């Protein structure tokens, strides 16, 4: 039996939500699916803040994303993408990563999920569920000296000192910054459930302490937090400013966050508590 239960995925509904057709495995088809996914769904922790997270099993994730029109965070995004790719005939391996640069800060738990795809002789890292996700997969080869331009945002994947780890880096104003380091240890569904339990319930987890809502849009990437707005555009200075009174609803609509009226009201109440 498949421990990931990918047969539960309604593949037709998922592809319809992305607005793409099923295609034979190829680099172009993989790029298309990955980018369509990150442009279709928000990265957010809203259900964590509302205390109603349904879990990270595939059945719960697809009901939330496809049934409710919602988004989520890495465990959900990657669970859905990995299942879709597997159903489409790709060779996938689920991986866990540590967020941040272990050389500069306290080592974090393995609480980020990505998926590795083997396509012919090529290994590719798919990362659809990071705050500022890759638009398209990035090759896991070479010495990290080559940049991967993702619509104006340069990334590179650097082999870490430990040969079983890869560091994903994004070029920022101050230079290359490590987003996370992925290892090549085996991952089982229980590892994802444990990671989700920690990130969604531990009092020190940043997912329990404030709003994080992001989405790729044409020509920009938008981040909405408890009290701030950040808009990034390739080649332009990043816009940071306080979130104005009443502006949260504007962005909930703009980013197409599928909240019911009662959920939106509860979110406002929760954010009010966090601000106080």
UniProtKB/TrEMBL annotation:
Lineage top rank: taxon: Bacteria
Alphabetical list of InterPro entries matching this protein: Arylamine_N-AcTrfase, Papain-like_cys_pep_sf
Region forming the signal peptide: none
Keywords attached to this entry: Transferase
GO MF annotation terms: acetyltransferase activity
Pfam families in the cross-refs: Acetyltransf_2 (PF00797)
Family per similarity comment: Belongs to the arylamine N-acetyltransferase family.
Name this polypeptide is given: N-hydroxyarylamine O-acetyltransferase
Source organism of the structure: Mumia flava
